Amino acid sequence: MRFCYASAARSVYRSLFILLSLVALAASAQAEWKVLSTESEPGRSGFEHRHVIVEDAAAGQRVAVDVAVFSAKSTALRVIDNPDGQSLGAVMKRENCVCGVNGGYFDREFKPIGLRVADGTTFSPLRRARLITGILLQSDRGIDVVRVSEFSRTKKIIAAVQSGPFLVEGNKRIRGLNDAQLARRTFAGIATNDRAFLGFCSDVSLAQLANILATAPVAADSKIRRAMNLDGGSSSAFWFAREDGSAFSISGRKPVRDFVGVVPK
After folding, report:
1. Those residues with Cβ within 8 angstroms of residue 214's Cβ, 6 or more apart along the chain or in another chain
2. pLDDT tens sequence across 13-51
């Protein structure tokens, strides 16, 4: 009988521990992030770089978000293959881009994972996998973010990079994202008022990043309609050409297979 009581007690404690862990994860994912400060600087052709500091006071966590904001219709997306492993800054200057980030995932053989389209030519095919559920693309209608299930080959696609997971949908965070692993993150998305953006965030989980993008005004007065994650961690990099010709740059920590850049039309 004593064994049964002990076994039952262990079962109760185990269930209680799991419940408390789930509650803690839910609280973290729903944490309220407040903007502490925002700095803005112009780039060429109406581009804007925003450096935003946000804080989750309850968790004592403060992170920096850098976002390049631009028109989704009067700019052009460039997906630039990088088989030689050059740096983001060097490639952005060479291609005369105003802003750029690292692109999608790649394997150990340095081959891209998922769809890649550059200058209308596909150099890596579409893949269906749980993680890479989004596509950042440029069509004749402008820059957009779509789900893989929505992607149509009948449209004329000029540039595209498949990555993921989705972070924001309809101004709301995606639920169920990983909240345990903190890392540098790179992301892309579209917002209201004809805005699109590329961005970088210091160490956060995917769930935290989704919550930040859905609730904090990192894209000024525009609400984020859709956002997706790009390759993160040591791949993450961000570059922005200031109006005066200098550049704001956050370097990646390893070579990556491709970049996403934006130029004026």
Report:
1. 167, 168, 171, 172, 173, 224
2. 454 444 444 444 444 445 789 999 999 999 999 999 999
